Amino acid sequence: MRATIALLPGDGIGPDVVREAVKALDAIAQRFGHQFEYRQALIGGCALDATGNSFPPETEQTVLAADAVLLGAVGGPKWDDPRAADRPERGLLALRKTLGVFANLRPVRPHPVVRDTTPLKPELVEGVDFVVIRELLGGLYFGQPSERRMGPAGREAVDTMFYSEPEIRRVLRLGFELARSRRKKLTSVDKANILATSRLWRELANELASEYPEVQLEHVLVDAAAMYLIQRPASFDVIVTENMFGDILTDEAAVLAGSMGMMPSASLAEPTNGGVRRGLYEPIHGSAPDIAGQEKANPIATIQSAALLLRYSLGLEAEARTIETAIDEVLAAGARTADLARPGEPVIGTKAMGDRIAAAIIRAR
Ligand code: IPM
Ligand code: MG
Question: What is the pLDDT of residue 166?
């Protein structure tokens, strides 16, 4: 296969971790005889510095021409001025919108090593295996008006939570479909006791449920969901929720995965004729500017994101599994970046972790 992959390393540790994911992709290409062509482009703070725009037109062209996009992270204290007209995060939202990636899949399946590092009781993370589907193009992130202004009582600000029926329905449908292919349980998370958008969400979920009789649908309020994620995480199979609830709950879920450095994500658009989906693949962690370029970042979330890219946008399931197995092997053999190590345990750097995983891919049978 020939495929074009856009690389958007971004800011902070973004370049550190994307470099290692490319190593893994190159190992896959070598091992399976594919040709991956990479096109690098700017996004976020580095794009602002170079062009004055967090999502420059050249980047837009590059991502639209690619089969899939692999992103590192954006942001940093340098660009944190709340009054700035453009910010790194705006670039990320513009990228998501441009690609039409309405569903953000965040799988949570703690690797056995996590039992050693979890701040939770180890038996609690036993058997945890769920996917959060976060709606990615609506809600408070995009609703208008969103502004700061002067009102009768002085400074005021407004954000708008808006959802239309098609926006809710397409992400719920993906939830039902994913649940049907897994353990057939779908948890829809909302705040229907307060929000009109949530009541519409719940109504549409109930309507769609009749098309998926084999899927068991439950509704959970977001505050309770935050609690159940820690109390009974193994009870979840697929969770589907609106944009900001998903943003918050998946950082919480990262604790179950052992580290933010172990949480990949896949953001998917509507399928094309061939059934493949254009996608944006990124670790859920931020740019961690304090450790950028210091060989301290865990590249696994980005390497796992590359596996999701192979699976969902290129249809290369065996190749995706090869990466996932390689990660398992390397962790089982004791390789630990700082975020995964117990006190006193030897630690390896970003590049060494990437090298070991690439070597395990080449060795794979
Ligand atoms: C995430 C991040 C982003 C978000 C930020 C960086 C804009 O927190 O992908 O979860 O809020 O969507
Ligand atoms: Mg987030």
Answer: 98
Assess if residue 37 is contained within a domain.
Answer: yes
Cβ of 92 less than 6 Å from ligand 1: yes
Query: Where among 236, 256, 276 does a domain terminate?
Result: 256
Ligand 1 atom 7: residue of nearest CA: 89
**Nearest CA owner, ligand 1 atom 12:** 247
Q: What residues sit around ligand 2, an ion, with C-beta below 5 angstroms?
A: 247
Query: Which of 234, 153, 221 is CA-nearest to residue 190?
Result: 221
**Is 114 inside any structural domain?**
no
Per residue in 327-357, pLDDT tens? 999 999 999 999 999 889 999 999 999 999 9
In DSSP terms, 221 is beta-bridged to 190
The whole domain housing 142 covers 119-256
CATH number of the domain to which 287 belongs: 3.40.718.10
pLDDT at 83 over 90: no
SS3 state at 346: coil
Q: How many CB atoms are closer than 10 A to CB 89?
A: 15
Confidence of residue 114 (pLDDT cuts 50, 70, 90): confident
Domains in the chain, number: 2
Q: Is 57 exposed, middle or buried (0-12, 13-18, 19+ CB in 10 A)?
A: exposed
Q: Of the candidates 223, 256, 289, which is a domain's last residue?
A: 256
Same domain, yes or no: 313 and 285: yes
247 lines ligand 1 (CB under 6 A): yes
Q: What is the pTM of this model?
A: 0.95
Residues 130 and 10 in one domain: no
Give the Å distance between the CA of 89 and the centre of ligand 2: 11
Both tokens of 316, joined, read 């290369």
